Amino acid sequence: MDKKRQIVFYKNYFQEFFIKQSQKVKDKIIWTLGLIEEIDRIPETYLKFIKNTDGLYELRVQQGNDIFRIFCFFDEGNLVVLMNGFQKKTQKTPKNEIVKALRIKTDYESNKK
């Protein structure tokens, strides 16, 4: 199967989050990343645009009762750049996590020039 998009990790934000997770959560994250690379239209269950942000999305992973979010954005149409992740404990995505993700995105964009 041809990949629809390429996933790239920016710096080591994602890796730092990933290595702290249990094997079951890691497996689910890897499965979700595979889905994002391969299917045309990604359901909002797995990838959701964050309102009132400049192109920020959250990759949504659920393992049992645990909910995880990994921030990402698109670059050049199909490059999904993964950034910081966290375990979600409340309904709303914490503001400080969004601010951190936007700071990383700005950093990425300014280093790309």
Structure description:
With 113 residues, this protein is of the alpha+beta class. Helices cover 36% and strands 30% of the residues. It contains 3 helices and 5 strands. A hairpin with a 7-residue loop joins strand 2 and strand 3 (57-63).
Descriptive tags:
single chain, 113 residues, alpha+beta, 5-stranded mixed sheet, 3 helices, 30% strand
Topology (elements, then pairings):
Blueprint: E1 6-9, H1 13-19, H2 23-38, E2 47-49, E3 57-63, E4 66-75, E5 79-88, H3 95-112
Parallel strand pairs: 1-5
Antiparallel strand pairs: 2-3, 3-4, 4-5
Detail the poorly predicted runs: none
Structural class by sheet pairing and helices: alpha+beta
Query: Count of DSSP E strands?
Result: 5
H/E element sequence: EHHEEEEH
Helix content: 25-40%
Characterize this entry briefly:
The chain has 113 residues and is of the alpha+beta class.
